[in-house]
Request: fold
Amino acid sequence: MDQQLLSLLIAVPVVGAGLVALAGPGAVKSMRAIALTASLAVFAVALRIAALFDSSTGEFQFTEQAAWIPQMGVTWSLGLDGISLLLVLLTVFLTPLVVLNSATSIDKRPKGYLVNVLLLESAMLGTLVATDVLVFYVFWELMLVPMFLLIGIWGGRRRVYASMKFVLFTMVGSLPMLVALVWLGLAHAAATGAPSYAMTDLYDLELTRSAQAWCFAAMALSFAIKVPMWPLHTWLPDAHVEAPTGGSVILAGVLLKMGAYGFLRLAMPICPDVLGVAMPIIGALAVVGIIYGALVAMVQPDMKKLVAYSSVSHLGFVMLGLSSLNVVGVEGAVYHMISHGISTGALFLLVGVLYERRHTRLIADFGGLWRQVPLYAFFLLVVTLSSIGLPGLNGFVGEFLILLGAFKASPVLAILACSGVVLGAVYMLWMFQRVMFGEIDKAENREISDLNRRELVILVPLLALIVLMGVYPQPFLKTMEASVELTLERAGITPVETARAEVSR
Amino acid sequence: MNPLPLNLLPPGADYAAVMPLLWAFGAAVLVLIAEMFWPYQSRRGVGWLTIAALLAIAVLGRAPIEAVYFGPIALDGFSGWCNGLLCIMAALSVLMSLDTLEVNGVTRGEYYPLLLFAVAGGMVMAAATDLVVMFLGLETMSIAVYVLAGMAKARRRSNEASLKYFLLGAFASAFMLYGIALLYSQAGSTDLAAMAGLAGEGGTSAVTRLGAALLLVGFGFKIAVVPFHLWAPDVYEGAPSPVTAFMATVVKAAAFAALLRSVLLAMPWVAVELQTPLWVAAAATMTVGNLAALRQRSLKRMLAFSSVAHTGYLVMAVVAGTSEAAAALLFYLAAYAAMNLGAFAVMMSLADRGRPAENISDLAGLGRARPLAALAMTVCMLSLTGIPPLGGFVAKVSLFSAVLDAGFYTLVVVAVLNSALSAAYYLGVIRAMYFDDADSLAAGGASAASRVLPARPALSVSVLLAAVAVVLIGLLPSPLLGSSLRALASVAGF
Reply:
C-alpha cells in the first residue's frame, strides 16, 4: 500500500463522498459519521506519509506514474516534497474540523454539504501532490466546483453574486494558465521530440526569455487571483462573507495558499530568468496588499469581513516572502501559509460560534462578552494574538522570517511591510476590545452560552498547534528546508542561509 | 448486335464500401414500411426497431483494415469512425424521443424513417470522395431534417422553424453548388483527389479561391458559423425538442465530417489561402455565440447559441489545418454530442403534454425535486464549460493544444477567454437548479421541476447513458482519442 499512498490520499475522500451520498435522506447522523470517518482516514494516510517522509532531500517522494492520455503525453504522476507535505497536513487537519462544525452550522441539505466538503478535500490534495502540470490543472479547476456550490447553496444573502464572482474571477485567471501549460508541453515536444507535462521535465526546459515572460505572466495572473493579491482581491471579501463557516475555513485555510503554492511549484522554477524583473513588482504589490488589507479590515463593521480583509493582508506577507527570493523569506512564506491557515481557520470558526448564537456578525451588536463567555474569550484572545504575530505563537515565526528575508532583498519594502504588523495589531485588538470588553448593553447578549463540548473538540487542536508552531518551529522548518532550497535552485538562486540557522541564532 | 456493357462499375469497385450505406437506406425503407403496418397504440415498437437498426449499422459500418472504394464512396477508417459516431448519437436521440414524441407534438410515425434517412445521408457525406456525391448526401440529410423540424404540425413555431430552415438551407445549397461548379471549372473534375492539385507553384487562382470560399459559405450555413448562424436559434427553438437534439449533434457532426474530408484533408491549401477569413469566422462565431447565449432565458435558445459557440471552437481546427487538429475535432464532436444530448434529455424530462418546459427558470428546484436528473444536468453543464475531468475538458485541451501547435496563439487565447465567458451561463443553469435564491424561488412556485410526471424509463436511461459517457470520455479519454487519430491516419494522402 505504501507505493500508492498519494493516490490513496486522493481516493479516500472520494470514496467517503460516495458513501455519504448513498446514505438515506433522513440519516443525517450517519452521514456525518461517515464523513468524519473518511476525513480521519485521510488524516491517518497523511500521517503515514509524514512518518515515512525523508526531509533530507528536496526531490519529489512517494512518486507514482501511470499513463493517462499517452497521445498527448499526459501522465497520472504524483509526488510530494516538503512544501506540499506541510500543506497536505494542513488540509487533512482542517477538513475533519469542518465536518465536525457542520453539525451546528449547516441546517439544510447536510448530505450535499458533506459530499462537497469531501470532494473539495480530494481536489485540494490532488493539486498539492500532482507532478504533471495538466493533472495539476485538472485538480486546480476541480477545486472550483465544490467551492462554487458551497458558497452558492449554503451561503448567506448575497450568495449567488458571491459564488458567480468567485468562479468567474478564478476561471478568467486559470484559463490563460492552461494555454501556458499546454504550450510548455508542446515546447517540450519541440525540444525533445515527445510531449511531456511532467514538472521535472518542464523545470529542465531551456526557454527563451520572452517565452518565459509570457508563461510567467499567464501563470502569475492565475495564481495572483487565487492568493489573492491586490488589486485582484475583490472576489475574496464577497466569497468569505457569504460562504458558510466551513467554506470560509477551507477557503482561507487552504484554497488561498494554492496561489502561493502555484508560484513556488510552477511559475518560479519554470521561468527563472524573469524572476529578477517580476518578483520586485510582486513584492511591491504584496506590500500594497498588506497595508491596504489591514486598513480596510480596520473599518469593517462585520467580523467576518474583517477576517477576510486580514487574509488579504496576511497573504500579502506570504507573497512578500516569496518575492524575496532567498531561503529565509521563502521558508517564512511557507511557514506563514500554514500558520495563517490555522489561525484564520480558528478565527472563522470562532466568528461562526457567535453567529450561530446571535445570528449577527456585526461588531456593534456585541460588547462585554468577556464575563458572559470566558472560555470563548480565552480562545478568541489567543487566536487574536496569534494572528497579530505575538512572539511565542505561530504567527510570529512566519512574519519574522518573511521580514528578515524581505529586508535582505529590499529594505524599503520590508520597512513598509512592518507597518502592516502594527496595523494588524490595531484592527485585531480593536475588534477584540469592542466585542469582549465594556458592559453588556444588549439584552440578547446575556443569553449567549459559552463554548460547548463539540466546539472545544474543534478548537483545542487548533489552539495546541498555534502554541506548538510558536514555540517549536524547528520540525516544520526542517521538513521544508531541502525542498525550499531545491525550488530556489531550480529558480536559479543559490541558497545562502536557511531559516533554521537564523532561528537558532 | 453489340453486347451490352455488363460491367458499368469503375475498375476496382468493391461492394463492401457501399454496404453500410445500403444497410442504412435499407433500414430506413424497412422502418417506413413497418411503420405503416404497425398498430398505432404500440408505436414505440418502431422506435425500438430504429434503435436496433442504428446499432446494427454502427457495427456493420466499421471500416475494414484496408480501405475499400466503390467509385466515389470510401469505406476507410474515417468513414467507419463517423458511421459509428452518427449511428450511436442517433440511437441515443431516438431513445430519448421514445417517451417524448407525443409530448412534443409529434404524432406522425414518419419520424423514425426520416431520421434514418438523415443518418444515411450523413453517412454518405462522411464517405464521399467526390464533391457531387458529398452534396447528394447533404441534400438527403437536409431534406429529411427540414421535414423533421416541422413534425409538430399543429404548432406554428414548428412550421416556422421548418420553413426557415428550408429557405436558408436552400440558399446554403445554392452557395455550395456554385462553389463546386467553380472548383470543377478549374480542376476539370469534382473528385477530391483533383482538388488537392489546384494549388500550383504560384498558389491558387482567384476562381479557385472563390469556389472554395463559396463551398465554405455553404458549410458555414449548415454548421452555423457567424454570420450564417441566424437561423439556428429560431429553428432550434421551434423544432420539437427531440429533433433539436438530433440536429445539434448528428446533423452538425455529419456536416463537420464532410467539411473535414473535403476541405481539411483534400484541400489543405484552403487553410492557407483563406486563413484570415477562417480565423475571423472562428473568433466571431465563438464570441457571438457566447455573448448571445449569456442573454437567453430560454434553455433551448441558450443551447442553440452554445452550439454556435462550440462551432466556433471547432472551426479553429480547420484554421489550424493539421491532422492533430482534425483528430481533436473528431474527439470534440463525440464529447460534445454526449454532453449536449444529456442536457436536452434532462430538459425534455421536465416537459408534459401542453406544458412545455423550455426555460432556464423551469429548472428551479430540480436539485431537490429530482437530485439525479439535476446531477446529470450539472455534469453536462460543467463539461460544456470545460471543467475537468469531464469529456468537454479533454476535448478542449486536445483541440487547443493542436491549434497552439499550429502557431495560432491569439486564437487560442480568444477561445479560452470565451470559455470563461461561457461559464457564466452554463453555471447559471446549475444556479437555477440548486441555489434557492430569490429569482429561482419566484420561479419555483410554478416551476416544471416540481411536476409529478409518469415514469419515462427510456428517457431516464438516455440521461444516464449521456452523463456516464461524458464522465468516461473525460476520465479515460485515451481509447477514443486514439481511435480518432487512427481514423485520420487511414485517410489516403494524409
